[in-house]
Each structure stands twice: as C-alpha cells, then as structure tokens.
Design goal:
CATH superfamily of the largest domain: Cupredoxins -  blue copper proteins
Cofactor: Cu cation
CATH topology of the largest domain: Immunoglobulin-like
Largest sheet: 5 strands, mixed
GO molecular function: copper ion binding; electron transfer activity
Protein name: Halocyanin-like protein
Shape: elongated
Strand content: 15-25%
Radius of gyration: 32 Å
Binding site for Cu cation: 112, 149, 152, 157
Region (Disordered): 19-67
Length: 221
C-alpha cells in the first residue's frame, strides 16, 4: 500500500511540475510575441546627430525646432548670431518629407546664400542682400541636410534641415554623436526570466514537500 501511494504521489508531482512549466512557458512566449508585434519598428524620433557640424554655431543651443505637420516652413537668412547678422533662424529645423522650406532673407549682414555642405540639393546661387524669400526647396527624401552661407561659413553661418523619420540619431551612433550606452533589455525577456524563476522556485518547493512528506520514493518492485 505504501509503495502504491508513493507511486501515485510521484505521478501527481510530475503532472503538477509539468503543468506549471508549460503554463509559465506559454505565458512567457505570449508576452514575447506581444512585445514583438506591438513595436512599430520605425526609425527616427530621436535626437538628430549632426556630427558636430553645428557645434560652433552661435544661435544653436542643441535643440531642433519641430516644424513637422506643416507643408511650408520658413527659415530666416541673416539673423543675429556669430557676432552679427550671420545666422540662420532656426539653425536646425525638423520638417516632414515633402515639405517645402522657404529661405527668407532679412536684408541684414550683407550678401548671403544657401548652399549644401558637401553633396546636397541646396544651392541658392550667388549671394544676395535683398530682403524676402529668395530661395525655396522641397525635400523628398528623409535625412539630415546641412548647409552654409559660403562667404560667412568661417563665422559659423551654418544650418541644417532634418527631414522625415529616417535620419541619423545620437542614440544610433550615426555620425560621431554621443555613445548609445548599454542596450536596454526588452520587457518580454524580463517577463520570460521572471516566469522561468517562478517555475524553478515552484518545482523546488514541490520537490521539498514530497520528499519531506511523501514517503518512500524508491521505484516499487
């Protein structure tokens, strides 16, 4: 009789442990799937990485003016900065893909122009001191577009347009910005770890209970 009860107890213990393991594994898997399916996976959204291009610009405080949601955005040419009317205002602006940026001269600081730094689509041509919107460009590709006023580049007359959502950010290390730091552990992985720990504790607890109170566990003849 004792051997029979021990055998029944062993079977009950195994069924209980297996059920707890399966339930916890299913919960962890469901959470992991939810974390994967719930993420939008979109790019951008972080702080743009200008690669130090705007570091010496007098009217750039490290922030990018958000002008998304607008079809047309204005950037002034010849605002007070860098010891005179040698700045773009704002120095850095974020617009939607497809938006048009109008460059409006203030008429201050002499002749200015707008030219991409390196390869790029911006080129207003010769310098002009005439006030008004003398140049505009519609951006049709995501990214960061740095530009300068050629005659006053040495004075720090620089600017940048951030377009869309797919652009280098400091968190992604896209061009010499701040380091990203250690990667964050996904919530699904944390949940799975907690579930696994629970199963281990529950199994050990059950094992102790049956060893302590379940009688002889030798296989009956």
């Amino acid at each position: 009789m004792t051997d029979g009860r021990a055998d029944v107890s062993r079977r009950g213990f195994l069924r209980t442990a297996a059920g707890a393991t399966a339930a916890s594994a299913a919960a962890g898997t469901a959470t992991a799937q939810e974390g994967t399916e719930g993420g939008d996976g979109g790019g951008g959204g972080g702080e743009p990485d200008y690669g130090g291009f705007l570091d010496q610009v007098g009217n750039f405080d490290g922030s990018t003016v958000d002008e998304t949601g607008k079809d047309t955005v204005t950037v002034e040419v010849g605002v007070q900065a860098n010891g005179g009317a040698y700045g773009f205002g704002p120095a850095a602006v974020h617009v939607d893909n497809g938006a048009t940026v109008q460059f409006e001269w203030t008429g201050e600081g002499g002749g200015h122009n707008v030219v991409s730094d390196g390869d790029g689509p911006l080129d207003s041509g010769s310098t002009t001191s005439s006030a008004g919107v003398n140049y505009e460009h519609t951006f049709e590709e995501d990214g960061i577009y740095p530009y300068v006023c050629v005659p006053h580049e040495g004075l720090g007359m620089k600017g940048a347009v951030v377009v869309g959502t797919d652009y280098p950010t400091k968190s992604s290390g896209g061009g010499g910005g701040e380091s990203a730091g250690p990667p964050e552990v996904p919530n699904s992985a944390k949940t799975l770890g907690v579930a696994t720990s629970f199963v281990m504790v529950a199994t050990l607890g059950l094992a102790y209970f049956f060893i302590r109170y379940g009688g002889d566990y030798e296989t009956p003849e």
